[in-house]
Design goal:
The complex is a heterodimer of chains A (297) and B (256). By secondary structure, chain A is α/β, with parallel strands linked by helices. Helix content of chain A is 28%, strand content 17%. In chain A, a hairpin with a 6-residue loop joins β11 (248-252) and β12 (259-263). Chain B is α/β, with parallel strands linked by helices and 256 residues long. In chain B, the strands form two sheets. Chain B has a six-stranded mixed β-sheet, with helices on both faces.
């Protein structure tokens, strides 16, 4: 690890990124341009989030990475290992123990507290991107608060599906001013964005934008008066821990139509199981490797 | 009576080349002004200067705003001008695809201006959109179809509906019938004339089709090389052209 500067990036780069972060915090929801660096991983793997994490990490931090809520998926494991090697910071999978959490597509179930920083990996920071192709025009629309077009997207949803079918990357209005794309988190997580105690930072590496929400910011999901916003999830309890209030992944368990719903937040699910909560399908041990070991023996 | 739009000495140059030079006229509420001339005579430049799409090098475009009375739209702040262009103004492009969002349904296209001025009730937006589709003779059942599935004439009518839904007072039209076949042109003109009369709209129509101005316009300006060479009542100019170019223009129309 001694070959690298602390947290991989050089000090000047981190300084530049911190300035962008501070500006983002000062203007909640505004997309601050920054000079995104080449990172030793491809675009789309979280280069924006990694740069923001590198800029905010200190040697005393405890770092957690989640990908779709899980601590053990490829993206999460590789980024966690990256910072173990280049920064030598302590890592954890426990949401409550972590001081910096980098996330892709989820907000942890457990309420975050003051002093924690949540770093999002953002693929496309511009909420108006697929509605107005000209970047010069979208910037003007943000500047002049012309957000009628955002509702055209929701209108199209209702006219086609009978309800607002946008289920992730659901646009929000920050402090009554900027419309922001909260990265592809499920809209189930949208209510957690507002009035959160932790600092939320959004980094988009390929698009070279950083935006941020300071603690206790007002965040409102856009909707129509007669089609109000609704945070949705699969209507099941978790198969492993029985939780009714957490966001669920659907997992196919065999080729005969078998499936189960499990918490996408692995730390939350394991915590509940350790506390004695048992879901309906927990006895089946769907992913057990036991039979294989027995045949070998 | 205050003119709705007062254009004073509008000049636009493209380098050494003149786009339009020193154009002045007043447009009163409910009046339709036609601007004719050959290609490259500065008609579209003038229209774009008036509609705020181009910044003129000199001159004023004074619009009688609802809130504050006559105001120069050239020196007005951009947010104000953009607000005008989606409430009191409308702009009908020659090619419907320039004025429509092709990836958004017909209803969404009509509803966009409503949502842009703060309408947030889906049911109301949809009702108004359906109503407007019917007013421009598009089957209400096609409210969820995208404009790409529409014919050229329907796209043009949809563009008009989309522009008129917020009840503008002034409509800029750039060759609204260009590229349509004659029978569709006739229907569109008929529709436009009805809407202009019913809603008491003022309009500025740029075209090179004299039949269009004969039908729609109260007054006419003839442009040549960036200058207005003749102006007056439509019938007067068309029946008794004074300037040599106007005479040429009128005599060039093929008689069937």
């Amino acid at each position: 690890m001694s070959e690298y500067n602390f947290a991989y990036l050089d000090e000047q780069t981190k300084r530049m990124i911190r300035r962008a972060i501070l500006k983002g915090l000062a203007i909640p929801g505004y997309q601050v341009p920054f000079a995104s660096r080449e990172m030793p991983m491809p675009y789309g793997w979280g280069t924006g989030g990694v740069q923001v994490s590198a800029a905010v990490l200190t040697p005393e931090d405890r770092f957690k990475v989640i990908d779709q809520g899980a601590d053990d998926t490829t993206n999460a494991v590789s980024i966690r290992t990256f910072f173990e090697r280049t920064a030598g910071v302590e890592t954890t999978t426990k949401t409550t123990d972590a001081t910096v959490i980098q996330t892709r597509h989820r907000i942890p179930e457990e309420a975050l507290t003051e002093g924690q920083v949540l770093v999002y990996q953002v693929p496309i920071p511009e909420p108006l991107r697929f509605l107005e192709p000209r970047e010069s025009e979208t910037r003007k629309m943000h500047a002049l608060e012309e957000y009628g077009l955002m509702h055209v997207k929701l209108y199209e949803d209702i006219s086609r599906h009978g309800h607002i079918a946008t289920s992730y990357a659901y646009p929000v209005k920050v402090e009554g001013r900027y419309v922001m794309d909260p990265s592809p988190i499920p809209k189930f997580d949208n209510p957690k964005l507002g009035e959160m105690a932790a600092i939320q930072l959004f980094g988009a590496g390929r698009e070279q934008r950083i935006h941020a929400l300071p603690p206790y910011t007002q965040v409102v999901s856009l909707d129509f008066e007669d089609h109000p916003f609704e945070a949705t999830k699969a209507d099941h309890p978790c198969g492993m821990c029985g939780a009714l209030d957490s966001y669920l992944d659907e997992v196919i368990t065999d080729d005969a139509g078998g499936r189960m719903f499990v918490c996408s937040d692995t730390d939350y699910c394991e915590g509940r199981q350790a506390a004695g909560f048992v879901g309906e399908m927990n006895h089946q041990r769907a992913f057990s490797v036991q039979p294989l070991l027995e045949t070998e023996a | 009576m205050t003119p709705l739009l007062s254009v004073q000495g509008i000049t636009k140059r493209y380098g050494a080349h003149i786009g339009c030079a020193d154009v002045s006229f007043d447009l009163y509420p409910g009046e339709v002004m036609g601007i004719v001339g050959e290609s490259g005579s500065g008609k579209s430049t003038l229209l774009n200067c008036m509609a705020g799409h181009l910044e003129p090098d000199a001159g004023k475009v004074v619009f009688d705003t609802r809130a504050n009375g006559p105001k120069d739209t050239v020196t007005m702040s951009e947010p104000e001008r953009r607000m005008l262009s989606r409430t009191d103004w409308a702009f009908v492009h020659q090619h419907a695809r320039d004025g429509l969002r092709m990836g958004v349904s017909a209803g969404g296209n009509v509803g966009e201006r409503l949502m842009a001025v703060g309408e947030r009730h889906y049911g109301n937006i949809r009702d108004k959109a359906t109503d407007w589709l019917e007013r421009v003779e598009i089957d209400a059942a096609r409210v969820d179809d995208r404009p790409v599935t529409f014919s050229g004439g329907m796209q043009q009518r949809l563009q008009i509906a989309r522009n008129l839904v917020t009840g503008p007072r002034l409509v800029f039209m750039d060759e609204p019938t260009g590229g349509l076949d004659v029978s569709v042109q006739a229907r569109l003109l008929d529709l436009l004339r009805g809407l202009v009369r019913d809603m008491g709209l003022s309009a500025i129509i740029v075209t090179h089709d004299l039949a269009v101005v004969r039908l729609l316009a109260d007054r006419l300006m003839v442009m040549k090389s960036g200058h207005v060479v003749e102006a007056g009542l439509t019938d007067q100019v068309l029946d008794d052209p004074q300037h040599a170019y106007s005479q040429l223009l009128v005599s060039s129309v093929l008689q069937v």
